[in-house]
Amino acid sequence: MLEAHQSLPEAELSAELSTEAVADTAIAAGTRATQTRRPSLWRHADFMKIWSAATVSLMGSQVSQIAIPFIAAVVLGSSAFQVALLGTVEMLPFILLTLPAGAWLDRVRRRPVLIAGDLGRAAALITIPVAYALGLLTIWQLYAVGFVAGMLTVFFDVADQSYLPVLIDTDDLVEGNAKLQISASGAQILGPALGGGVIGLVAAPFAIVLDAISFLASGSLIGLIRKSEPKPERKVGVDGSHTSLRQEIAEGLRYVMGNRYLRMIAGSTATSNLGSSLGFSIFPIFAYVELGLSPALVGTALGLGGLGVLLGAVLAAPLARRLGVGPVIVGSMFVSGLSMFIMVFLPTTAMVAGAMLLVSQLLLGFTAVVYNVNQVSFRQAITPLDMQGRMNATMRFIVWGTMPLGSVAGGILGTFIPLRMTILVGAVIASSAFLWVLLSPVRSLRVIPKTTPVRASAD
């Protein structure tokens, strides 16, 4: 789900920058906070456009998540290390570009970046079926497409999470994130099965066309959003000059690492992603080659596992209201780590393996969504609007930066030890991720703050 960084020193943040004060106020307020009944976001025209865009693009991406590893492992006959390297190349931009992307995105309007990210990924993906039709497709092209798509995803994802607090009110963030997770669940239910089915009907590279079309549709829908987005003002230093990207990147790092809630959430998510990416990096070889499972079976199991995502999206907010935000974050991360152990014991019997894979994905989907809806909404709520891009970029740098490391480690381990043991190593790492939030103030959070600070610092 989710680099070892040298921790920055604990810093006393200014009153305007401190999110801990906001969070602590929310904890003290507890259930005393009252709220009026708000209109559903289903009636929010601009939110529905971005929700529809997310639904379409997530559906297409699920198809590619089945098709591209299958192309590498079966169509091109790549080795376990070469297949694992796909994940590394796709996630490498999150180490190289996330921090400058976040600082830059706090200077510009986010909607044009979202549109450009969708159209660029469509253009990159369509080269795969074209090259296959011409007999020119190689693993190196898959690496190139993965890197370009990953680079565009860096800008898109940071802009996306930073754009939602602009588009909807702070009080609607949990509902908004939950509804976006419903999109993810629908995509995970239908997408893998669709991808596996399409691969069964046509050559796998042609399934990628569906993903390219989905990005075109997503970009078009985002282009229809009409809410005015003011251009952020450039930050000014004490000497009256504009601050540099380096200064703003450093400020974002200090903001996250200096906050006792955010840094522990980052550590937990990063550890989870390290373990899961290590285990799943060699899963295509393990499933399709060693166990002999079909893409249709794997796709169906993964797709039905998306029902867990749907259930998590529906219950994320009610669970937090009943049990408290902190306990839900800790508990969901704990169960999420345990769900990976089921993968270690998959047999060669197709139906049994499919059933076990389904159970694993149901648990993983449910807990991942419950965790993400609550921790992302909390992060968005306590972060000033002019820090959203850098906060999200810093979090993505940390939590997704471990994924290429995990993929490389998985490829190396899968070369020298049995693939099943490689998945076990990943499961052990992922299962320890909950300790970060358990041994931190996060466990004491009761509610999500209702008011987002407008600015991180005075002009």
Description:
There is one protein chain. This protein has 459 residues and is mainly alpha-helical. The protein has a single domain, classed as Up-down Bundle (Growth Hormone, Chain: A). The protein has 18 helices and no strands. The chain is globular, with a radius of gyration of 21 Å. The chain starts with 19 loop residues before the first helix and ends in a 21-residue tail after the last helix.
Strand proportion: under 5%
Broad structural category: mainly alpha
The N- to C-terminal Cα distance equals: 37 Å
CATH class: Mainly Alpha
As a whole number of angstroms, the C-alpha radius of gyration is 21 Å
CATH structural fold name: Growth Hormone, Chain: A
Mean pLDDT across the residues is 83
**Broad shape:** globular
Helices and strands, in N-to-C order? HHHHHHHHHHHHHHHHHH
Which residues form runs of ≥5 with pLDDT under 50? Answer: 1-35
How many strands? 0
- The helix fraction, in percent, is over 70%
Alpha plus pi helix count:
18
* CATH A-level architecture: Up-down Bundle
Number of domains: 1
Which features would summarize this protein structure in a list?
73% helix, 0% strand, 459 residues, Growth Hormone, Chain: A, disordered N terminus
